[in-house]
């Protein structure tokens, strides 16, 4: 991390409560925080006017938003809270229009757009469409047809545009994410992707899903570069990645961990299954022609991803075993001892 990044991280540390937060969490908390000063003055004003029902709706919304901020801040769970906030907010808005009349319909627009910030576009569209239907029921007896149609069409258009925008942004984010996490040479995941996947796995709560980590390293790769040139070395790396793809299941993940070092996260594979996988890949590399006229071998360290340990400890363990395989003469697999 650069000095500027570190300074920035330090400056915003108070906002994250000392831990790394997902973008969705921060957006939800910010939306709730923004809505409090937007609604509270109206609630207080209506309280002073004696409009008890309207004041109660406004103050309930403010209290709800505060509760969501505290909940998300403390637990980091935002998915159910995002849905809850959207439904609660939409209901509050509809009750306000019902109680105070059509002039309050302006609140519908920002409320509906906010839904696209915190929910999947299709979910936001579903909730907003239901809200629009209820709004029509509330207003149908109070407005002329032309006025009602104007409200319905403008709300529908705002939703349509917001949906397209959110959908397109989602697609772009996905493409960006894929590009950022891909190794440009071999097409497998890069080190950043590996670290994210390992930390996701560490947080995964399902205890029955045992998985293993394989670290693979080409033997004497420097010689290949020196003897045949860097381009030939690159071709070996590409062919090795293809070979690994052919030997793994679609649920397994392959990463390029360093220059000539790869990692495989074998999902659902215990130590013995992972050892068989490693041995299969080692033997396949030894018998394949990754480079014409030059036999190529790899060494592999295999460890299980014990939930008692951290991703850094899994990597250290696999690296130690890989080192042992190299020390033992290369073209070999070393597997961690079974603990249970
Ligand atoms: N062609 C190519 N070579 C790379 C790439 N990244 C790293 N290397 C080379 O990989 C080689 C790694 O060499 P070493 O770390 O000495 O390891 P080694 O020769 O494989 O020896 P052992 O691992 O001990 O068997 C170096 O020559 C690097 O230049 C790459 O993207 N393409």
Automatic annotation (TrEMBL):
Molecular function (Gene Ontology), one example: diguanylate cyclase activity
InterPro entries per UniProt: Diguanylate_Cyclase, GGDEF_dom, Nucleotide_cyclase, Rev_trsase/Diguanyl_cyclase
Pfam families reported in the protein's UniProt record: GGDEF
Membrane-spanning intervals of the chain: 26-45, 51-73, 80-101, 113-138, 145-166
GO biological process, one term: negative regulation of bacterial-type flagellum-dependent cell motility
Cellular component, GO annotation: plasma membrane
Listed PANTHER family: DIGUANYLATE CYCLASE DGCM-RELATED, REGULATORY COMPONENTS OF SENSORY TRANSDUCTION SYSTEM
Stored CDD domains: GGDEF
Protein's UniProt name: diguanylate cyclase
Root EC class: transferase
Species for this entry: Duganella radicis
Catalytic activity, as annotated: 2 GTP = 3',3'-c-di-GMP + 2 diphosphate
EC number(s) given by UniProt: 2.7.7.65
UniProt-listed PROSITE patterns: GGDEF (PS50887)
Domain GGDEF stretches: 209-338
Keywords: Membrane, Transmembrane, Transmembrane helix
């Amino acid at each position: 991390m650069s000095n500027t990044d570190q300074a920035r991280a330090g400056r915003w540390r108070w906002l994250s409560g000392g831990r790394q937060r997902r973008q969705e969490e921060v957006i939800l908390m910010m939306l709730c925080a923004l809505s409090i000063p937007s609604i509270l003055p109206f609630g207080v004003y209506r309280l002073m006017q004696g409009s008890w029902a309207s004041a109660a709706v406004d103050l309930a919304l403010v209290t709800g938003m505060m509760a969501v901020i505290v909940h998300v801040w403390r637990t980091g769970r935002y998915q159910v809270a995002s849905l809850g906030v959207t439904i609660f907010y939409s209901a509050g808005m509809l009750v306000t229009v019902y109680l105070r009349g059509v002039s309050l319909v302006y609140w519908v627009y920002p409320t509906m757009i906010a839904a696209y910030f915190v929910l999947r576009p299709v979910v936001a569209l579903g909730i907003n469409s239901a809200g629009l239907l209820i709004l029509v029921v509330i207003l149908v007896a109070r407005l002329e047809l032309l006025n009602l149609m104007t409200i319905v069409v403008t709300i529908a258009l705002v939703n349509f545009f917001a949906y397209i925008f959110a959908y397109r942004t989602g697609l772009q984010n996905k493409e960006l994410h894929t590009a950022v996490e891909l190794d440009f040479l071999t097409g497998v995941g890069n080190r950043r992707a590996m670290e994210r996947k390992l930390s996701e796995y560490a947080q995964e709560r399902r205890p029955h899903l045992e998985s293993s980590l394989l670290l693979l390293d080409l033997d004497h790769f420097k010689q290949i570069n020196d003897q045949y040139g860097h381009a030939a070395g690159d071709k070996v790396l590409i062919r090795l990645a293809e070979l690994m793809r052919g030997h793994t299941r679609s649920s397994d993940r392959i990463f390029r961990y360093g220059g000539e070092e790869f990692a495989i996260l074998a999902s659902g594979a215990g130590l013995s299954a992972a050892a068989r996988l490693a041995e299969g890949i080692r033997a396949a590399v030894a018998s394949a022609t990754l480079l014409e006229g030059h036999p190529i071998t790899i060494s592999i360290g295999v460890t299980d991803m014990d939930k008692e340990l951290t991703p850094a400890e899994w990597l250290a363990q696999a690296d130690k075993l890989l080192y042992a395989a190299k020390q033992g003469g290369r073209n070999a697999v070393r597997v961690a001892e079974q603990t249970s």
